Amino acid sequence: MTTSAPVSRPVSERERLEEALRRCAGGDPAGLRTIYDAEAPRMLGVATRLLRRRSLAEEAVHDTFLQVWQHASSFDATRGNADTWLYAVLRNRALNILRGEARTELTEDFEPMGLASEDESPEAIVLRLSTTSALKRCLERLKPIQRHAVVLAYVHGLSHGELAGRLDVPLGTMKSWMRRSLAALRECMP
């Protein structure tokens, strides 16, 4: 008499997403890839309907996957389905982008605020720093557009939304630039 191998039952999509989230929570990038392959196109469609601009929708999906990677451990299968959790993260990210975009639209014209006509450009401010300044050395290591954004943010007090509007880039791109630039400055400064 021969023993047959156990018959494996097909894994449902819900179970596959739950397992992928558990793998993400454990730091396994293949788990995130599984979620991305299964859900990214649909998420982009949902985000496009919410945000009405493809560039913003792509930003929302990107940011959602960052959130999923960072916070997968907060998913609790006893409280809901994996796809419900994923789309709640996407929805919250899209709403945050909409709030930021509304701020940007209110400040499209910087001339009345006096911000575009400042005496010194961000590059002139950097040049004015002492040649022995660690800050100057570190700022000069940044890409010019990122250095420009950092100086505008700190000297003129512009928000991410205002910077994105002024430099004509998506809000998520600006946030990424600022996050990476500040990390590079922290790393560079003594």
Automatic annotation (TrEMBL):
Q: Which CDD domains match?
A: Sigma70_r4
- Ranges for domain RNA polymerase sigma factor 70 region 4 type come to 134-185
Q: Which residues form the RNA polymerase sigma-70 region domain?
A: 36-104
Q: What InterPro entries does this protein map onto?
A: RNA_pol_sigma-70-like, RNA_pol_sigma-70_dom, RNA_pol_sigma70_r2, RNA_pol_sigma70_r4_t2, RNA_pol_sigma_r2, RNA_pol_sigma_r3/r4-like, WH-like_DNA-bd_sf
GO biological process entries: DNA-templated transcription initiation
Residue span of the signal peptide, if any? none
GO molecular function annotation:
DNA binding; sigma factor activity
Q: This protein's superkingdom? A: Bacteria
In terms of Pfam families, this protein maps to: Sigma70_r2, Sigma70_r4_2
Which keywords appear in this protein's UniProt record, sorted alphabetically?
Sigma factor, Transcription, Transcription regulation
The cross-references to NCBIfam families, in alphabetical order and at most eight, read:
sigma70-ECF
Family (UniProt): Belongs to the sigma-70 factor family. ECF subfamily.
Q: What is this protein called?
A: Sigma-70 family RNA polymerase sigma factor
Origin species, per record, is: Microvirga aerilata
